[in-house]
């Protein structure tokens, strides 16, 4: 392929597709209320902007079009993220404004060209744009793509994206590319200071729904955690000494040292089993996903007013499943509505 010539205005008269990896909160910001923000971005930039489906911690945002429209779309996204940062700082004591950060998803076969011999190309990008650029050393799960993280001011990010586009056009991918597709995943849950947090990447994200579950369950002290004799929910100190509470919820973690699976049984009144199962099994499936435990509900027995629930998994899986089941029961009994 002939090296693409950069026009004097910085534009490239070609069509290109760029993929971005975003967390749920970032995607929500891009979509906007009733999809108004992304609609405006599409109309004003002229680029096609598609967001991957699915209830995943991460989503893929695909931007396609002539490069001048792609740069406009990137500019609108970068300035929107900067606006979000400024708004979040209005209620924060922090004085220094953190940089805007975008993550591109790039075929691994092109990353060598982005880095350059001895890191020369990536160094040149950093110096000429003022943006921080980092290419991940490992490929994203089940793919042949890597994440390229760009941080800085919106202006610096836009200039950096332009240079990355030039390199990608000059050095097309080699061989077939297996694209990264985020998968729905059970994430670890931490409860601290009366708040619930889910772990997304290296960040702890507050989770209001789980916080409400936690508060309801705390009122009832529903079960005895691992290794404790006094009923109480495991606090921060307990979590520090029982880190396995955090890791069995990650699928395919590859940890061979997980505790052996065990089984716990409990009985639930027939008239309350519906709030555990949920419409078309939605609630019990949520509990399975959050806890990582296998949960089986026995069929109703003639003449019995109770149903048996069998929970199988590691002690940590079982404890969290019990906690979530009791929280559902508490909300039903106290009439606090559906969580």
Descriptive tags:
alpha+beta, 22% strand, six-stranded antiparallel beta sheet, disordered N terminus, 339 residues, three-stranded antiparallel beta sheet, 38% helix
Describe the structure.
With 339 residues, the chain is of the alpha+beta class. The protein has helices at 24-31, 36-45, 67-89, 108-115, 120-129, 154-170, 208-220, 236-241, 273-277, 282-291, 315-333; strands at residues 15-23, 48-51, 58-66, 100-107, 132-135, 145-152, 189-192, 195-200, 203-206, 262-269, 294-297, 306-313. The protein has a 6-stranded antiparallel sheet. Strands 7-8-9 form a 3-stranded antiparallel sheet, covered by helices on one side. Helix 2 (36-45) packs antiparallel against helix 3 (67-89) and helix 7 crosses helix 11 (315-333).
How would you summarize this macromolecular structure in one to three sentences?
The chain has 339 residues and is an alpha+beta fold.
